[in-house]
Amino acid sequence: MTSTRYARSAIALHWAIAFLLLFQLGLGWHMTSMGKGAAMYAAFQFHKSIGITVLALSVLRVAIRFVKPRPAPVESGVLTGLLMKLVHLGLYAFMIGGPLTGWIVVSTAKVAIPTRLFGVIPWPHLPVSHALNGIAMESHEVLAWMGLGLVALHLAGAVRHHLGGGHENVIGRMIPAVSAPEAARRAIPAALGAAGLLGAAFLSPWLLYRAAPAAPEAPASDTPVAGGSDPAAASSEAVEGPVQAETSEPGEAQTDAPASSEVAVPVAPTSTPAPEASATEAAKPVSWKVMDGGRLGFTASMSGTAIEGRFDQWSADILFDPDALAQSKITVRVPLLSVNTADGSRDSMLKGADFFGSAGTAVFRSSRIRHLGGERYTASGTLSMNGVSRPVTLAFTLHIEGARADVTGSTKLDRTAFGIGQGQWASTDQIAANVDVTFQFSARKAP
Asked: Rounded to 5 degrees, what angle do the CA atoms 188, 189, 195 make?
């Protein structure tokens, strides 16, 4: 059975898919120039949601094509007819293959980011090999460029068949509210209007998502590099470190030796003993240096899925003795731009202005260390980050054997209390407020 027009359901799906595809093409193009930050991450998440929507609508469109009556094919020559079929087949490949390859790219990423359609509906990853990631990414890009060309050919072909060859109202068969008796005359203005709307859909991502400024890079001279500190700088730290620990402003970048390299922790500045000090004075805290292999990590919840990360650069000044806890002190500094979650897109977001881009260095200074019994301790103090200072308590276990100490501990932070996560990320709908922080390292007494 044939018809002079496509079914209403087919028309609705045709234009819905067309607008979404042009929006996707514009968004994909725009994302390549957005730089790093939360805006790009949000655009990427929305791109995934629209892609799955296009896939679902395209499958439905194919099904309707076989169950609803369609107009008779436009009469044309052999070559023209073959070209028309190839363009239509290519468009269907674009409509279905584009979202599928994108889904594979997301599913095979090194660290898969959870997908929630429009931030609400959890969407699974495909059970495919990670070896397909490169092929899927290249195919996704090729399909995008191919789709842009096919859309242009499809529009040009529709106009050509409408205006030439004696065919009546070819365009009007797929445009709502354009019907006889003046259909053919009204179809061209309607087609121009539709083309304008498609162009607006393509350009709208530039209005919806503004490129964020590039995240500042931490200066090499001010940021400790794990396992690669300069010996001269380390020597200077041993003398001046304690003074910096007391005078630096929250968030100020420090010139620290890395916690993961064996550099002596600064010793307390020399001072004249108090007159009341005696030979029978109680034990005093001693300086410890952190050994290679330490780790400062965190676990956050993103859309209900645990995301683990770490800070590759951090340093600790430790004056400690279990028999002199009142005089013991711990200072830890963490350059926040050293964040690493093993996912480039997510790390770019975290290093952007909405998260750690302007937060500088987080500094924890203990004010009281308590022994809870056995090898259990707590260190209460102040954490300064992003221009905000809050009381924080670290719980840790400490095993000392000779000149070596092994430490394992944790704490829980509220990221919103420090203003980490601005704009749309200030809400806890996608990224939970609580972040679990863990640390593990070994240290030995400084000679």
From this structure: 90
Q: Give yes or no for a contact between 31 and 43, defined as CB atoms under 8 angstroms apart.
A: yes
Domain match, 36 and 162 both: yes
CATH number at residue 377: 2.40.128.110
Query: Are 189 and 265 in the same domain?
Result: no
What percentage of the chain exceeds 70 in pLDDT? 69
Choose among 8, 146, 136: nearest CA to 70.
8
**Which residues, 6+ apart, have CB-to-CB distance to 304 below 8 Å?**
114, 122
Whose structure tokens read 């975290």?
A: 350
Beta carbons of 153 and 141 less than 8 angstroms apart: no
Which of 84-88, 94-98, 158-162, 224-228 holds the top average pLDDT? 94-98
Query: The tokens of 417 are what?
Result: 């209390």
Same domain, 296 and 408: yes
Are 38 and 117 within one domain? Answer: yes
* 8 A C-beta contact, residue 397 and residue 259: no
Q: CB atoms < 10 A from the CB of 1, how many?
A: 5
Q: How would residue 357 be classed by pLDDT, with cut points 50, 70 and 90?
A: confident
SS3 226: coil
Please indicate, yes or no, whether residues 200 and 311 belong to a single structural domain of this protein. no
What the block records as the tokens of 318 is 């430790």
**What is the total count of domains within the chain?**
2
Q: Does the global pTM surpass 0.85? A: no
| 3-class SS letters over 381-444 | EEEEECCEEEEEEEEEEEEEECCEEEEEEEEEEEHHHHCCCCHHHHCCCCECCEEEEEEEEEEE
Distance set, CA 64 to CA 60, 91, 121, 149, 155 (Å): 6, 16, 26, 25, 22
State residue 37 phi and psi, 5-degree precision: 140, -175
Angle between helices 183-208 and 8-31 (to 10 degrees): 30
Distance from first CA to last CA of the chain, Å, rounded? Answer: 94
Domain membership flag for residue 213? no
Q: What is the CA radius of gyration of the chain?
A: 31
- Judge if 193 and 315 occupy the same domain: no
Residues spanned by the domain of 383: 231-269+283-445
Q: What is the pLDDT of residues 188-219, one digit of tens each?
A: 666 677 778 888 888 988 888 765 444 444 44
SS3 70: strand
